[in-house]
Amino acid sequence: MSHSDCADPVRKALLDDLDEGFAELYAAHRSLVFSTALRLSGRRPDAEDLTAETFLRAYRALAGYERDRVAQLQPRAWVMTILMNVWRNCVRTRARKPPPDLPGEPVEVVDPHEGVEEAAVRRETGDELAGLLALLPEEQRAAVVLRHVVDLPVSEIATVLKIPQGTVKSHVSRGLKRLRALGGAR
Amino acid sequence: MTEDSLIAGLAALAAEPPDGLLDRIAARWVSVPGPIGELSVAFTEQGVAYVHAGDGFARAHRERFGRPLLPAARPPAGLLPALRTGKPSGLRLDLRGASDFQRDVLEVVRTIPRGEVRPYAWVAARVGRPRAVRAVGTALGHNPVPLLIPCHRVTRSDGVPGDYVFGAAAKEGLLLAEGVDLDRLRRLAGERVFYLASDTTGVVCFPTCHNARRITPAHRHGFRSLAQARAAGYRPCRTCRPAQPDPV
């Protein structure tokens, strides 16, 4: 794992200068955070909100940390833990007060950077699978997304989700089994 | 769905965030020349959020906004002309950090033209809180964008410039540079004159209103209060709008 040695470049940058370090943190982990947010929430606007909120919270937390604490930080697992907290809060708020305009199906928002062919390929495979992910129970969805969409190691997922590694594995395998069953049923 | 195609399909679900997302999170900053020396200016995608003079900009911004601060390639459109001319010139401002009251105060103060001053009590009256004169002072003391919202143009009615985010001396210097005749204001205040009226137009103004500055001495009349001016048959100027409780 990259953070087991002492030379995490993001941590080093954060120790040098909080604002420049933040730029490094964002550059290093934006895809990871955004991909996870997108596949957890199923909606691009929500994923953007979750990503923005996660990085803002990260910055505000870092601003209050002593140097020692930053020196101990494992930035990737730490920022993903913040994302999971932000997402859970968001889910909880939604459950309490569902917004009136929330449609039943995930809406496709056109990505201006995506070519026509890419979009066609994605629609054939990606959309269907993304839709199936939304049908998984939250803990299975989280485990499957972290393990197989963004490829985090099981040990780090255990840290991020604050559950034992064995539980991570069982969530992942149950999630995959469910996805296969759902995919086959179509 | 086979095991491998499912895993590959999941891996293909990774995605890049849109390019502009970082600018929803972080503010950008530039260093620009200003009328009181070098200024550090922070702005977001909503507009200019913070103007700071002197040291400690990054720390002050962090404490105030809790938002990352990254260098900008260039100043936002309209910033340099606004600083050069002292006019708002359509520059967008980000006042999200301000309370409703503070935002009302800042919006009113933004309309005071270069070269003119208004009393604190006038601002309080214009925001519909005529008794909140001290609160206006506090709101202006926390103006996040001095110079762009010209809080230096709000002065004490006795002709003394009063407090300023960048210090009283800077305030006096700015007003003099804009052509405000502070000596004259102090002299008038010493004579208990806070309004000037013209017997050719029948209009009463604040002394620095451009309409008041045009009055020739032969036709100029000073008043201590707006009530006195009204009693003498003058109506308040529609440009500087001095309709407010009289100074006490």
Automatic annotation (TrEMBL), chain A:
PANTHER family: ECF RNA POLYMERASE SIGMA FACTOR SIGM (PTHR43133:SF50), RNA POLYMERASE ECF-TYPE SIGMA FACTO (PTHR43133). Coiled coil: none annotated. The keyword Acetylation does not apply. Transmembrane segments: none annotated. Pfam families: Sigma70_r2, Sigma70_r4_2. It comes from Nonomuraea fuscirosea. SUPFAM superfamilies: Sigma2 domain of RNA polymerase sigma factors, Sigma3 and sigma4 domains of RNA polymerase sigma factors. GO terms for biological process: DNA-templated transcription initiation. Residues 25-96 form the RNA polymerase sigma-70 region domain. It comes from the Bacteria. Belongs to the sigma-70 factor family. ECF subfamily. The keyword S-adenosyl-L-methionine does not apply. This is RNA polymerase sigma-70 factor (ECF subfamily). NCBIfam families: sigma70-ECF (TIGR02937). GO terms for molecular function: DNA binding; sigma factor activity. Residues 128-179 form the RNA polymerase sigma factor 70 region 4 type domain.
UniProtKB/TrEMBL annotation, chain B:
The keyword Transferase applies. The keyword Transferase applies. GO terms for biological process: DNA repair; methylation; regulation of DNA-templated transcription. GO terms for molecular function: DNA binding; methylated-DNA-[protein]-cysteine S-methyltransferase activity; zinc ion binding. Transmembrane segments: none annotated. Residues 191-242 form the Ada DNA repair metal-binding domain. Keywords: Activator, DNA damage, DNA repair, Methyltransferase, Transferase. It catalyses: a 6-O-methyl-2'-deoxyguanosine in DNA + L-cysteinyl-[protein] = S-methyl-L-cysteinyl-[protein] + a 2'-deoxyguanosine in DNA; a 4-O-methyl-thymidine in DNA + L-cysteinyl-[protein] = a thymidine in DNA + S-methyl-L-cysteinyl-[protein]. Its EC number is 2.1.1.63. Residues 100-180 form the Methylated-DNA-[protein]-cysteine S-methyltransferase DNA binding domain. Gene3D superfamilies: DNA Methylphosphotriester Repair Domain, Winged helix-like DNA-binding domain superfamily/Winged helix DNA-binding domain. Belongs to the MGMT family. This is methylated-DNA--[protein]-cysteine S-methyltransferase.
